[in-house]
């Protein structure tokens, strides 16, 4: 639909990425946490849970990949800190 906002007509957000938080192990105690889409109040708890889960699994070295993030809300920055 012309003139509608991305995602409002069932289309994926700009870049074709749905908001997500994923993790990938890169070493015995290391993990990459990847964020795609808007890191807002809706996604921030998922980021916090993913990091907490990886810490509980013994991971101590983190790389946070925000290359796919399209927006960072201030609460999510607090989660990262």
What does this protein structure show overall?
The protein is α+β, with helices and mostly antiparallel strands. It has two helices and three strands. It has a three-stranded mixed β-sheet, covered by helices on one side. Helix 1 (about 45-55) links the parallel strand 2 and strand 3 (about 60-70). Helix 1 runs parallel beside helix 2 (about 75-80). The longest helix is centred in the middle third of the chain and has 13 residues, at about 45-55.
Low-confidence stretches: 1-13
Beta strand %: 35-45%
Shape, please? globular
Number of strands: 3
List the SSEs and their pairings.
Elements lengths: L19 E8 L2 E10 L4 H13 L4 E12 L1 H7 L1
Parallel strand pairs: 2-3
Antiparallel strand pairs: 1-2
Helix pairs in contact: 1-2
Features:
81 residues, 3-stranded mixed sheet, disordered N terminus, 25% helix, 3 strands, alpha+beta
Explain briefly what this protein structure is.
The protein has a 3-stranded mixed β-sheet, covered by helices on one side.
